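User: I'll paste a sequence; please echo it back and then give the predicted structure.

Assistant: Echoing your sequence first, then the prediction.
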Amino acid sequence: MITFNEIHDDQPELDNSPLLRGAEAIFCYFEEHGPIGLTKAMAFKRDFVTWAVPRMGWPGYSEAELYAVNKVLNEDDVPPLELLHFLFLELRLGRHFKGQFRLTKAGQNLGTTRGKLFGVLTPFFLFHVDHSWLERFGSKPVGKWEIWLNVINVEAERIVSGRELFEVFYGKPAIEGVGAIREESAFYSGVLRPLVWSGLLAQVETEMPGRWRDASYAKTPLWYAVLTLDTDAELARLTRH
Protein backbone atom coordinates (compact mmCIF):
# COMPACT_ATOMS: atom_id res chain seq x y z
CA MET A 1 0.00 0.00 0.00
CA ILE A 2 1.29 3.46 -0.94
CA THR A 3 1.51 5.92 1.94
CA PHE A 4 2.57 9.55 1.80
CA ASN A 5 5.39 11.00 3.87
CA GLU A 6 4.40 13.88 6.14
CA ILE A 7 5.22 17.24 4.62
CA HIS A 8 5.49 20.47 6.59
CA ASP A 9 3.54 23.62 5.83
CA ASP A 10 6.62 25.66 4.94
CA GLN A 11 8.14 23.20 2.47
CA PRO A 12 8.35 24.87 -0.96
CA GLU A 13 7.69 21.56 -2.72
CA LEU A 14 3.99 22.05 -1.98
CA ASP A 15 3.90 24.88 -4.51
CA ASN A 16 4.08 22.23 -7.26
CA SER A 17 0.54 21.03 -6.56
CA PRO A 18 -2.35 22.46 -8.60
CA LEU A 19 -4.71 20.48 -6.37
CA LEU A 20 -3.43 22.25 -3.27
CA ARG A 21 -3.43 25.67 -4.95
CA GLY A 22 -7.04 25.14 -5.99
CA ALA A 23 -8.06 24.13 -2.47
CA GLU A 24 -6.25 27.14 -1.04
CA ALA A 25 -8.11 29.40 -3.46
CA ILE A 26 -11.37 28.14 -1.94
CA PHE A 27 -10.14 28.95 1.56
CA CYS A 28 -8.94 32.35 0.40
CA TYR A 29 -12.39 33.13 -1.01
CA PHE A 30 -13.98 32.26 2.34
CA GLU A 31 -11.62 34.62 4.12
CA GLU A 32 -12.38 37.48 1.73
CA HIS A 33 -16.05 36.91 0.87
CA GLY A 34 -17.60 34.27 3.11
CA PRO A 35 -19.63 31.23 1.93
CA ILE A 36 -19.80 30.38 -1.78
CA GLY A 37 -23.19 30.74 -3.44
CA LEU A 38 -24.72 27.71 -5.12
CA THR A 39 -26.94 27.43 -8.17
CA LYS A 40 -30.22 25.52 -8.09
CA ALA A 41 -28.26 22.54 -9.42
CA MET A 42 -25.92 22.83 -6.38
CA ALA A 43 -22.93 23.96 -8.43
CA PHE A 44 -20.66 26.86 -7.52
CA LYS A 45 -22.12 30.14 -8.78
CA ARG A 46 -20.51 31.93 -11.69
CA ASP A 47 -19.09 34.79 -9.65
CA PHE A 48 -16.97 32.40 -7.61
CA VAL A 49 -15.85 30.44 -10.67
CA THR A 50 -14.77 33.67 -12.37
CA TRP A 51 -12.90 34.73 -9.23
CA ALA A 52 -11.21 31.36 -8.69
CA VAL A 53 -9.85 30.54 -12.15
CA PRO A 54 -7.01 33.12 -12.28
CA ARG A 55 -6.01 32.31 -8.69
CA MET A 56 -5.62 28.55 -9.12
CA GLY A 57 -2.90 28.52 -11.76
CA TRP A 58 -4.17 25.15 -12.98
CA PRO A 59 -2.31 23.78 -16.04
CA GLY A 60 -4.58 23.71 -19.07
CA TYR A 61 -7.26 25.85 -17.41
CA SER A 62 -5.95 29.40 -17.48
CA GLU A 63 -8.31 32.31 -18.08
CA ALA A 64 -7.05 32.65 -21.64
CA GLU A 65 -7.60 28.95 -22.41
CA LEU A 66 -11.07 28.85 -20.85
CA TYR A 67 -12.36 32.09 -22.35
CA ALA A 68 -11.14 30.98 -25.76
CA VAL A 69 -14.02 28.48 -25.78
CA ASN A 70 -16.48 29.99 -23.27
CA LYS A 71 -18.14 33.41 -23.10
CA VAL A 72 -18.80 32.98 -19.37
CA LEU A 73 -17.51 30.42 -16.89
CA ASN A 74 -19.74 28.03 -14.97
CA GLU A 75 -18.52 25.25 -12.70
CA ASP A 76 -18.95 22.58 -15.35
CA ASP A 77 -16.69 24.56 -17.70
CA VAL A 78 -13.83 24.15 -15.20
CA PRO A 79 -13.32 20.45 -14.34
CA PRO A 80 -10.73 21.22 -11.61
CA LEU A 81 -13.38 23.18 -9.70
CA GLU A 82 -15.87 20.35 -10.14
CA LEU A 83 -13.23 18.04 -8.71
CA LEU A 84 -12.47 20.28 -5.73
CA HIS A 85 -16.17 20.71 -4.98
CA PHE A 86 -16.56 16.93 -4.99
CA LEU A 87 -13.47 16.34 -2.83
CA PHE A 88 -14.51 18.88 -0.20
CA LEU A 89 -17.93 17.24 0.09
CA GLU A 90 -16.62 13.66 0.09
CA LEU A 91 -13.99 14.42 2.72
CA ARG A 92 -16.50 16.45 4.74
CA LEU A 93 -14.44 19.58 4.55
CA GLY A 94 -17.44 21.47 3.19
CA ARG A 95 -21.22 21.11 3.00
CA HIS A 96 -24.25 22.58 1.31
CA PHE A 97 -26.49 24.63 3.56
CA LYS A 98 -29.37 26.89 2.53
CA GLY A 99 -28.08 27.56 -0.97
CA GLN A 100 -24.48 28.06 0.08
CA PHE A 101 -21.28 26.04 0.24
CA ARG A 102 -19.84 26.33 3.73
CA LEU A 103 -16.74 24.95 5.39
CA THR A 104 -17.14 22.38 8.14
CA LYS A 105 -15.05 22.54 11.31
CA ALA A 106 -12.70 19.98 9.82
CA GLY A 107 -12.36 22.13 6.71
CA GLN A 108 -11.70 25.26 8.74
CA ASN A 109 -8.96 23.50 10.69
CA LEU A 110 -7.20 22.21 7.57
CA GLY A 111 -7.33 25.59 5.87
CA THR A 112 -4.39 26.84 7.92
CA THR A 113 -2.18 23.72 7.59
CA ARG A 114 -1.25 23.30 3.95
CA GLY A 115 0.91 20.23 4.56
CA LYS A 116 -1.94 18.36 6.24
CA LEU A 117 -4.38 19.64 3.63
CA PHE A 118 -2.22 18.18 0.86
CA GLY A 119 -1.91 14.94 2.83
CA VAL A 120 -5.69 14.62 3.12
CA LEU A 121 -6.67 15.66 -0.40
CA THR A 122 -4.05 13.99 -2.55
CA PRO A 123 -4.14 10.31 -1.50
CA PHE A 124 -7.94 10.37 -1.63
CA PHE A 125 -7.86 12.01 -5.05
CA LEU A 126 -5.32 9.59 -6.50
CA PHE A 127 -6.45 6.31 -4.97
CA HIS A 128 -10.19 6.66 -4.37
CA VAL A 129 -11.60 8.89 -7.12
CA ASP A 130 -12.90 7.31 -10.32
CA HIS A 131 -10.74 9.18 -12.83
CA SER A 132 -12.81 8.01 -15.79
CA TRP A 133 -15.27 10.84 -15.01
CA LEU A 134 -13.32 12.99 -17.49
CA GLU A 135 -12.49 10.17 -19.89
CA ARG A 136 -14.37 10.42 -23.16
CA PHE A 137 -14.64 6.63 -23.55
CA GLY A 138 -15.34 5.97 -19.87
CA SER A 139 -12.48 3.48 -19.83
CA LYS A 140 -10.16 2.68 -16.92
CA PRO A 141 -6.51 1.66 -17.24
CA VAL A 142 -5.46 -1.87 -16.37
CA GLY A 143 -3.09 -1.87 -13.42
CA LYS A 144 -2.57 -0.74 -9.83
CA TRP A 145 -1.15 2.41 -8.31
CA GLU A 146 1.62 0.48 -6.56
CA ILE A 147 2.90 -0.68 -9.95
CA TRP A 148 2.35 2.59 -11.80
CA LEU A 149 4.13 4.67 -9.16
CA ASN A 150 7.06 2.30 -8.72
CA VAL A 151 7.71 2.03 -12.45
CA ILE A 152 7.24 5.75 -13.12
CA ASN A 153 9.62 6.38 -10.22
CA VAL A 154 12.38 4.90 -12.38
CA GLU A 155 11.23 5.93 -15.86
CA ALA A 156 10.48 9.58 -15.04
CA GLU A 157 13.84 10.15 -13.37
CA ARG A 158 14.64 11.46 -16.86
CA ILE A 159 12.29 13.43 -19.06
CA VAL A 160 10.02 10.87 -20.72
CA SER A 161 7.14 11.19 -23.16
CA GLY A 162 3.60 10.06 -22.44
CA ARG A 163 3.86 7.56 -25.29
CA GLU A 164 7.04 6.05 -23.82
CA LEU A 165 5.40 5.65 -20.42
CA PHE A 166 2.35 4.01 -21.96
CA GLU A 167 4.51 1.54 -23.88
CA VAL A 168 6.51 0.63 -20.76
CA PHE A 169 3.29 -0.66 -19.18
CA TYR A 170 1.31 -1.93 -22.16
CA GLY A 171 3.70 -2.24 -25.10
CA LYS A 172 3.20 -0.78 -28.53
CA PRO A 173 -0.35 -1.17 -29.82
CA ALA A 174 -0.44 -4.01 -32.33
CA ILE A 175 -2.88 -2.10 -34.51
CA GLU A 176 -3.54 1.62 -34.40
CA GLY A 177 -7.28 2.11 -34.06
CA VAL A 178 -10.12 2.82 -31.68
CA GLY A 179 -9.03 0.10 -29.27
CA ALA A 180 -5.51 1.51 -28.99
CA ILE A 181 -6.86 5.03 -28.58
CA ARG A 182 -9.14 3.86 -25.77
CA GLU A 183 -6.25 2.20 -23.92
CA GLU A 184 -3.99 5.24 -24.31
CA SER A 185 -6.75 7.63 -23.31
CA ALA A 186 -7.55 5.56 -20.20
CA PHE A 187 -3.87 5.60 -19.16
CA TYR A 188 -3.66 9.36 -19.53
CA SER A 189 -6.94 10.02 -17.71
CA GLY A 190 -6.41 7.43 -15.02
CA VAL A 191 -2.69 7.81 -14.29
CA LEU A 192 -0.79 10.68 -15.91
CA ARG A 193 -3.33 13.48 -15.52
CA PRO A 194 -4.04 12.72 -11.83
CA LEU A 195 -0.29 12.75 -11.14
CA VAL A 196 0.08 16.11 -12.91
CA TRP A 197 -2.95 17.57 -11.14
CA SER A 198 -1.64 16.39 -7.78
CA GLY A 199 1.74 17.98 -8.54
CA LEU A 200 3.80 14.78 -8.42
CA LEU A 201 4.53 14.86 -12.15
CA ALA A 202 5.06 17.92 -14.32
CA GLN A 203 4.41 18.24 -18.02
CA VAL A 204 7.66 19.89 -18.97
CA GLU A 205 7.36 20.40 -22.70
CA THR A 206 4.90 19.86 -25.50
CA GLU A 207 5.96 19.44 -29.11
CA MET A 208 2.40 19.08 -30.39
CA PRO A 209 -0.11 21.07 -28.29
CA GLY A 210 -3.12 19.07 -27.17
CA ARG A 211 -1.45 15.67 -27.65
CA TRP A 212 -0.45 14.20 -24.31
CA ARG A 213 1.43 11.32 -25.99
CA ASP A 214 3.99 13.75 -27.36
CA ALA A 215 4.24 15.80 -24.19
CA SER A 216 7.15 15.15 -21.85
CA TYR A 217 6.88 14.39 -18.16
CA ALA A 218 9.23 14.39 -15.17
CA LYS A 219 8.95 13.95 -11.43
CA THR A 220 8.63 17.16 -9.44
CA PRO A 221 10.38 17.95 -6.14
CA LEU A 222 7.07 17.10 -4.47
CA TRP A 223 7.38 13.49 -5.68
CA TYR A 224 10.68 13.10 -3.85
CA ALA A 225 9.33 14.80 -0.73
CA VAL A 226 6.20 12.70 -0.18
CA LEU A 227 6.81 9.30 -1.76
CA THR A 228 8.99 6.46 -0.52
CA LEU A 229 8.76 3.56 -2.97
CA ASP A 230 10.06 0.02 -3.37
CA THR A 231 12.03 1.03 -6.48
CA ASP A 232 13.97 3.79 -4.68
CA ALA A 233 16.83 1.34 -4.00
CA GLU A 234 16.93 0.29 -7.66
CA LEU A 235 16.92 3.93 -8.73
CA ALA A 236 19.79 4.70 -6.37
CA ARG A 237 21.85 1.88 -7.94
CA LEU A 238 21.11 3.10 -11.45
CA THR A 239 22.13 6.67 -10.67
CA ARG A 240 25.46 5.50 -9.18
CA HIS A 241 26.47 3.86 -12.47
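The mean pLDDT is 91. Residues 178-198 form the longest helix (21 residues).
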